[in-house]
Every structure is written in C-alpha cells, then in structure tokens.
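Lab meeting, action items carried over

1. Structure of the two-component assembly. Owner: GW. Status: complete.
Input record:
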Amino acid sequence: MKMDISWRFLRVWQRNLAVYRKNWLINFLLPFFSPLFYLVAFGISFSVFIVNIRYDANQVSYISFIAPAIIAINIMNNSFFENTYGSFVRMYYQKTFDAMMSTPLNTEEIITGEIIWGATKSLISSVIMLVVISFFGVVSYPAALLIIPVAFLGGIAFGAVGMCFTSMVKIIDLFSFPVFLFITPMFLFSGTFFPLTGLPVWAQQVALFLPLTHLVNVLRALNYGLFNADVLIGICYLVVFSLITIPIALFKMKRRLIK
Amino acid sequence: MDNDQTLIKATNLKKSFGDFVAVREISFTVEKGVCFGFLGPNGAGKTSTIKMIYGASPVTAGDLFVFGLDIKTQARAIKSRIGVCQQENTLDPDLNVLQNFEIFASYFNIDKKTAQDRTMELLHFFALEQRRNSKVAELSGGMVRRLIIARALINQPELLILDEPTIGLDPQSRHQVWDKLEALKQQGLTILLTTHYMDEAASLCDELVIMDNGTILAQGSPQALISKYTGHHIIEVTEPGPDLVKYIQGKDVWQENLGHRLIIYAAEEHDLYRDLCSRFANKDCLLRSASLEDVFLILTGRELRE
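Predicted assembly:
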C-alpha cells in the first residue's frame, strides 16, 4: 500500500488543538496537580523510609529520583490514552474521521495528525509538570530543558503504539487489555519508583525491552544534567520504536477505515 | 471524455468486499447541472457506489472519472471539488456550529477570512444564523441535517453528494431540506443523491437509476420510468371478490394479485375502471396515477430486505 502524506496532517492537529483550547482549564489542572500528588505521596512521605538512593555511583535524594519518572509516566499516559480512547471515540462514536475523509484529507494524514497531536499533549503537560517540579528544587537546568523535545519523541512512540491497538479493537472496553498488560506493568516496573536493580535479573532484562524504561533513563539522566550512554541508547530505542510502530499504525488504520 | 457536460462517467464499475459483490459492473454518466438519484432497497449498492465517487472506497474494477479526472490517481483533486453529506451525523460534537464550519473549511485549506464569510452566507441560506454558537448536541435532527448539507458547501463544490439526505426527519424538516436542495439546483449545482424515499426521488431528481443487488435495473427521468414500466394509471381493488378476480383474469391486462389487494396496471383509459365499478359496484375500487413506488416494486419485487 502506497503512503501519501502531505502537510495537511497539520489540519487534523489544529482541530484537536481547537478542542483542547476550549477545555484548557481541565487540560491545565491535571498536569499541574498530578506531580504535586506524586511528589507529596512518594517523595515526601516515603523519604521517612528512604533517605537516599544510589544512582550512577552517586547518592541522590528519592524525590529527585522519582521526579523525572513522573514526567515520563505522564508522557506515556497522555499520548497513549489520547491515541487509544481519544482517537477511538473520534473514529467510532463521533464520526470525526468520516467527515475528514470526505475532504481532501486522506487516512495517512488523519492518523499522522492524531499521533502528532498525542505527542503535543505529552509535550504541553510535560512543560507544566517541569515547572511545578522545579519548585521542589530537584531539576538541574539548562540540561533539563532537553526533557521537552524528548517528551515529544516519547509521545510519538507511545501514541503510535496506542494507535496500533486502536486499529485492532472492536469495542472500546477492549482497551483495558493493553492498559492492564502493557501500561500498568511499565508504570510499576520500568525503574520508575525504585531502581531496576531491585528486580530479579530476568525481570531487569524484560524491562530493557519496554519503552518506558528507556524514556525514564533518558529523562533521569537529563534531569541530573548527565549526557551518558543511557541518553543515547534511550533516544535510539525511542526512534527505532517509533519507526516501527508508526508505519504499522498508518497501515492498519488505513485498512480499518477504508473498505 | 464524451464532452465537457459530463461530470461523472462510470464504466463497468465494480465493488466487492471479499467474496461479496456490492456493485456489479455498472455504467452510467451524470451530466452537469442535473439532480441524479440512486434509488434502491437496503443493500442495493447505492452507498457503495457513491463512496467510490467521493474517494472513500477504492474501485475494485472498472473505470470511474469525475470532472474528467481518474478517481484512482487523482482522488485528492476530485475531493477538493465536491461536497459530501454522509448518512450519519458527522458534525463534530466537540465544537460549536461556527467552529464546525471553520475547521471543516481548513481541511480544504480555505483561509480563515473566506471560511468565516462563507459560513455566514451558508448559515443565512439555511436559516440557521441564530444557531451559530450552539453546541451540536442542542440541535434537532432537521437542523443537524441542514447543517451537514451547509457544511458540505463550504468549498463551493461543483458536485454535491448526498447519502439519504432526509432519513429520519419529520415531514416539515424533509420539506425544508427539499426546498433548499431545489434552490441549489436552480443555481446550477449538480446533485447526486441516494434515497429509498420515492417521493423524494420523484420530486428532486431529473434522472435516476433504480438499483438492486448491485446492478442498475432501470434508468431515466421519473416520468419516463413510470410510463415505461407501469402505464399512467393503476386500479387497486381491496379485498376483491372471486367473480371480479375471474373477470379480470379473462381480460388481457397486466395485473398483480396480492390476495387482499388486486393491482391492475391500466394504460391510459378509464374504461376498465368504469366497467369494474358498474359490474361489481365495488366501493373499494380505486383509480390512481402510477407512481415511482409502483415502478420500484415492479422492478425490485415485494420481498422484505432484512
């Protein structure tokens, strides 16, 4: 199947941005308060039990250890949920894609616009979170500013894999499976709230295949101002992961939408 | 191309979904400025045909040219010159009425100023200006339908495609939609529509095809189809007695006995009707003009399509 993508995909992106701006307050409050909740619940309360944690041969505070992971989880959730539940509602219930398909837009542009939008949501919410987390004094600037473009890249990776699931599910409730079997394990076991070294060796090896592990690695290094192998490997992983999942999402969504 | 008056030319057009053939090698042409209708029972292949015309469904076999352009290679150019009104409500519920128009216009790369001007013109034409800030969920079925048609005109299309434009509307709303479509027709817009409402087809279409099982059974103007397939008048007898049935069977007239109803396709004269009335004094004997519905039932049969 031939792929045909023009810059018109930005029209789809603009449509989603227009809706986002209508509900800007809700969209702003969630990334504003969620890091506060996490940092208070885990960072401050847990620090009674955990004072410092070992990272890259140094002792770091627990709150600075989980802060970048909270941003990474937010990147994953924003684009994954946008391109699963959000895109599915637009496609299946709201017939938004049908309307678009009767215009010069084609399915490749619609899906590209959706994925880029999901990544944009990841980016916007990451910026808000970064600002909030900065007040806890656990962000090292200017290196941490690189978290912003990485948020976009990570958003593409998780959005594209979400879109692959969207191309397959027949009913919206089936999204519970990827959430339960893919998102939740990553949330817990990707070196987010405790170092990977706390896991059995086999589990550490499994974790290395998960995209969130790499996103957490990159963000954590950047947050400490380090440019180590984790950053390079993680970015390469996310790029390759996206280069695989985007064509699958485009191809399978085209098959689903065009009969 | 035949001439520059031809807007759509389909030759042996076929659409199949796996083993199921929805459209079986049909050929037709649509001239500029006409209202062309596809009439047929559910599953006849109407929607499949028009979906191929607006590029939402690939052609399985055969040729399809719109504006002289090949749909297989120039779908985007074709789509930018047509307006499509799908069967379902495709208004964007996340946006209000004005935003629906402006964002839809952006899909055609229409600049914002032009889009705003056209939106106000279209809302005025469809008498919906008061609703410009409404949410989609607050609108009635008739308003939604008019808005979808109005929105389909935002790119000033040369061809308007409507899939069951008045399905599910109350009579007032249907007539309002017809009025607007009639006015658009007067402005010279070419309209292509599918319907299974006979009155809609008869009042709007200059030319129509009757489809069933993916094939075209008949083509012509509504009046030409009526005179070709039914004659001009029909006598309907409710609960015909056995002697009447026997008498009619002795006559050389085309008839259909449905048990509780006897339908006689009488040509021009009223003689047979008078004859029947005087002989059998049957008060349930009715003489009426033949309609498109009679043609439709003759061609597609009376079985339910379920």
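2. GW to write a short summary for the group page. Key points so far: Chain A has a mean pLDDT of 93. Chain A touches chain B through 21 residues (CB under 8 Å).
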